[in-house]
C-alpha cells in the first residue's frame, strides 16, 4: 500500500505549515487523490492491460493451457464467431430483466418515497436485506422455488400457462433470477431521486388541471429520470455479464457470455479467447451505455 | 373536462367565493372552525392571522388540496366542495412557489393551458409574461431566476388560467423587505388589471392593510373581524384584533351609565366617555382602548380642554424620529402606553421623568370586552 504513505505525511505536516498558501493547499488536494489513483492503477489499469495482452496471445505448440505473447487479433473474430449466440442472449435476457425490474421497482420506490411515512426506514432495510445472504445461496433458493414439483410450477401448469411445462432450466428462470438478483440496484437509485421531489409539485400540477396520471407523466416521471437512468444501468450492466443465473437456473442452451467466459477460463483454460470475450462484452456495454445516456440526456425519453 | 367550456373564454369571469360553515379537523384538533364568509367578485381579500391560525388550511380547502370536515365552498353559486383540485376553476400561488424545476418559464406558465387541451398557447403565454414583466426570461429554468422573478412566474402560471379566484399563500414571505414592498405594488397592479378576486394570505398586517380592499383577521381557526383596513384598524372589535393590527393602548374600567349616545366609564382613577356604537360591550367590565397616534401629550397641569379622555403618568422614554416623537409613558396604574406625537411645533420635547397628561377625543376611543388575556396589558 505505498500510495497511502504520502497522504498520511501530508496530513501530519498540515498543522505545522499553518500559513500554507493556496498553492500548497491545491498540492494537498492532489496528494489526497493519490490513494484513489493508486487503487485505480493497481486494481483497474493493470488487470485491464494484462487482460488485453492475454487476449492477443497465441498458444504454444504442443502444450495445452500455455500461451505466449503475440498479436493474434484473430482471437477476437474467433470469440465472436463461436459465441455470438451467447452475446445475443446476454443482451436480450439482461434487457428483459432490466425492464421487469423497472416495472416492479418504480411503484415500490414511489410508495416508499411518498406514502410509506414512518415505515420508510424499515422498507428500505427490507429492500437491501437480501444482500445479507450470499448471492449464490439466494440463487440456489430460486431452484427450489421454481422446481418442477414446486407450488408455482404446479399451479401454472394446471392453468397450462407454461410452454415447456416447467420454469426451472428454461430462459424464463434465468430472466426471473436476473430480475430478482439486481432488483435492489434498481430500487435504490429510483428511491433516491423520487425522494427528492417536493410533494407540493404534485399538488401544483393538480391545481393546474393535471389529472393524477398526467401529473405523474409530466412532473414526477421527468424529475425521476436520473434515477431511472442510474437504476437501469446498474441493473443492465451486471446482468449482461452475469454467469451465475444462467448456470444455476437455465438449461445449457440458455448460457450467457458470462458463462462462456467462465468456461473458457476455468475449464478449457483458453485464456486468450476468454479475455477477448471479456473485451468484446465491455465494448458492447460501453456502446449501449453511451447511446442510452445520450438519449436520456436529451428529452427523447420523456 | 367539466370546466373546460367556461375556462376556454379569454376574459375573466368574476365570481363571488362563498365559504359556508367550513370546518377542518385534524384528529381532534380544530384547524378551521365553522368559517362562514363571502369574498365578493373582483375584490382583493387578505386573510391575516398569526402562524398556525389555519390560513393555509383554509386556502387548501378552497383549492381542493384538503377535504373539509364539514361545510361548503361555492364559487359563483356552483358547489365546488366535492370537486377534485384539477376540476376546480381556482388556481394557487404556493407559499414556496412550487415551480416545476425541469420546465422553463414558458412551459411552467403554459402548463395549465396544455392540460386543458389548448393547442396554441404561445400568444397567451407571451401576453402573460408581459403582464408580469418577464418577457425576456421565457427560456430560463426556475433555478436560474431570482426570488422575485420566481414569484412572478408563480403568479403568471396561475393567472393564465383565468381562475374564478386566485389564491396566494404568503406569496411574498420569502422575499426581502425592499422586494416585498415592490411586489406588493406589483400584485396590486396585476389584480387591478385582470380584475379577478385575489385571496391573499399573510401574517404581515402592514402588507394586508396596504394591499387589500377587505381584511379578515383570523385567530385559532375563526374570523375575529372582517372589513376595510381603515375600519378595522380604527374600530377593532376584539382585543386580539386591536393588538394584531398595530399598537393599542388600553385601560380597564367599568361602565357606570350612559349619557346621550355615550357610555360613561370609570377606571384607573379617571372617567372616560366613548360612543356606544364604538364599544363591543355596554355594561360591566370594559377595556377602553385608543391608538397611539390619536393621543396628545402635555405636561401635567396644562390646559387640555373639556370633553376629552385622559390618563396621567410619567414619561419613561422619548425617541425623536424626525416626523414624530415616540413616547413611552408609565401610567398611574402601572400600565405602559405608547404615544406618537407629530412634531408640529417647535416647542421643547418632553423628557423622561416628566409628569404628563395623555389625552384624546372620545370619538377615537374604542371599547372592548375584557377577556382572559386582558391582564397582560397591565
Ligand atoms: N396535515 C395536518 N395534520 C395535523 N395538523 C395540521 C395539518 N396541517 C395543519 N395542521 C395544523 O393546523 C393548524 C393550522 O395550520 P395552517 O397551516 O393552516 O396554519 P397557517 O395559518 O397557514 O400558519 P403559517 O402562517 O405558519 O403558515 C396548525 O396548528 C397546524 O399544526
Ligand atoms: Mg401557512
Order of neighbouring strands in the sheet with most strands of chain B: 6-7-8-3-9-10
Stretches with pLDDT under 50, minimum 5 residues of chain B: 1-10, 373-378
Oligomeric state of shown chains: heterodimer
The CATH superfamily of the largest domain in chain B turns out to be P-loop containing nucleotide triphosphate hydrolases
SSE arrangement of chain A, N to C: HHEEHHHHHHHHHH
User: Greatest interface and its residue counts?
Assistant: A-B, 19 and 23 residues
Computed over alpha carbons, the radius of gyration of chain A is 25 Å
Quote the CATH topology of the largest domain in chain B.
Rossmann fold
The beta-strand count of chain A equals: 2
Largest sheet of chain B: 6 strands, mixed
Q: What's the shape of chain A?
A: globular
Q: Class of the largest domain in chain B in CATH?
A: Alpha Beta
Topology:
The complex is a heterodimer of chains A (about 300) and B (about 375).
Chain A: H1 4-16, H2 22-55, E1 58-59, E2 67-68, H3 74-115, H4 120-128, H5 135-145, H6 151-158, H7 171-195, H8 199-207, H9 212-241, H10 244-249, H11 257-266, H12 271-297
Antiparallel strand pairs in A: 1-2
Helix pairs in contact in A: 1-2, 2-12, 3-7, 3-9, 3-11, 3-12, 7-9, 8-9, 9-12, 11-12
Chain B: H1 4-7, E1 17-26, E2 29-39, E3 44-48, H2 55-63, E4 70-75, E5 78-79, E6 90-93, H3 105-115, H4 122-131, H5 147-159, E7 165-169, H6 177-194, E8 197-202, H7 205-211, E9 214-219, E10 222-227, H8 229-234, H9 239-244, E11 249-259, E12 262-267, E13 270-275, E14 285-290, E15 296-299, E16 309-320, E17 324-331, E18 336-342, E19 355-360, E20 366-368
Bound molecules: adenosine-5'-triphosphate and magnesium ion (MG).
The site of adenosine-5'-triphosphate has 12 residues of chain B, from strand 2 and helix 2.
